[in-house]
Amino acid sequence: MQAELATRNSQNKLRDYVAYPKQAEFHEAGSRFRERLLSAGNQLGKTWSAGFETAMHLTGRYPDWWQGRVFEKPVAGWVASETSEVTRDSVQRVLCGRFNDIGTGAIPKDAIKDKSLKRGVADAIDTIVVRHGGGGDVQAGESLIGFKSYDQGREKFQAETLDLVWLDEEPDEDIYMECLTRTNATGGINYMTFTPLKGMTNTVKRFMVDKMPGTHVTSMTIYDALHYTKEQREAIIASYPAHERDARTKGVPALGSGRIYPLADEIVAVEPFQIPSHWAQVGGLDFGWDHPSAAVRCMWDRDSDAFYVVDCHRQREQTPQMFAVSLKQWPSWLPFAWPHDGLQHDKGSGEQLADQYRKAGLTMMAERSTFPDGTNGVEAGLQEILARMQLKKFKVFSHLSEWFEEFRLYHRKDGKVVKLADDLMSATRYAWMMRRYAISQKESEFANAIHQQEPDSDGIYF
What we know:
It contains 15 helices and 17 strands. With 462 residues, it is α/β, with parallel strands linked by helices. The chain has 2 domains: 2-254, Rossmann fold (3-Layer(aba) Sandwich), CATH 3.40.50.300; 265-444, Nucleotidyltransferase, domain 5, CATH 3.30.420. An 8-stranded mixed sheet has the order 3-4-5-2-6-7-1-8, with helices on both faces. Helix 3 (46-59) packs across helix 4. The radius of gyration is 27 Å and the shape is elongated. The mean pLDDT is 91.
């Protein structure tokens, strides 16, 4: 009996699938976004989770806890990886089980109606017919899933109309766009699962930098993989070379030695805490339109000379008035540092950009951001901030996910800073450069009280 029960369980793993929180986040996003990326380290469960989601769509068997996309009818789809052999050893194995035990993967054995094999590749499946729905008076339908590989070339990804495409391992941009086109007519879904070892490619940039409408990224780190113990995580992390560690354990695009701040999040992050009223505060502002406008709110503990980023905001296509409204929860007296392009005049009104933000209600500093000696070198600012981070004198509140997103991707190429997804990084640098003008809440209240008083006959306020 026990052997029979074990066999039955092995042939219906879909029934028992339970997602980790990060995997559940990835699944749920499918109900709202056509394009998804699960960017994760190696052996963390990214292929496993996408495989079980694919099996749900093919069979129509969704668990009670499911909050992702639901197909009420049979579907047609593709799954693919780098080569036919890799597709066989990863995607096919997760969906179907090993070739000598088909039906022990994510697709239940009783749902696999037929299969055809791929020519020229041992044990590789080309197409599977999957039973969708059925039971009671409901007639079961048939879903179809094809197995492909990137090395077939873009042309092999043309012509078909599909409901879903799952790409395991990163494809070139041309193949990805062909797959996206295949689901346009049906309003279908495209999802990818990979470790971004190739760096900031166009495929990665679409999701992590450009953030095209309809796209969603779930980042899964080794700390989100609940099948590892603390000791196992530490051993795995230590086994990777430093330049690949973030990619292989956190799903952060591999930037090699080009990272501007080559530090782990944990070195910089600090849990949020109540801000003492005597600490000085300063804001930083980076202007944008096609790329986001960005603002940071920072604190400076003059006694310990420690600097903290405690809040941030980033949004594209915002007028000065709209962006100022987004910051209305920040102190109205917060002085904002801003860059040299704030001196540019608007073509329509003729007003300087900084003045537009000033009129929108932000307390803009009188002059653009410079160091005390009047210079404003980018590299000087970056090196100062990095040195402070290494001394643990520059901290960022740990819940500021957008700030850390840019922090991880901020890099140089050919020795030059790459001006992509650096809006909050730039705003932070401006605030750091102008921290000498930071003021505390008490100082602001004192200045305001003086402003409201009338001087005596000698011009003295007290």
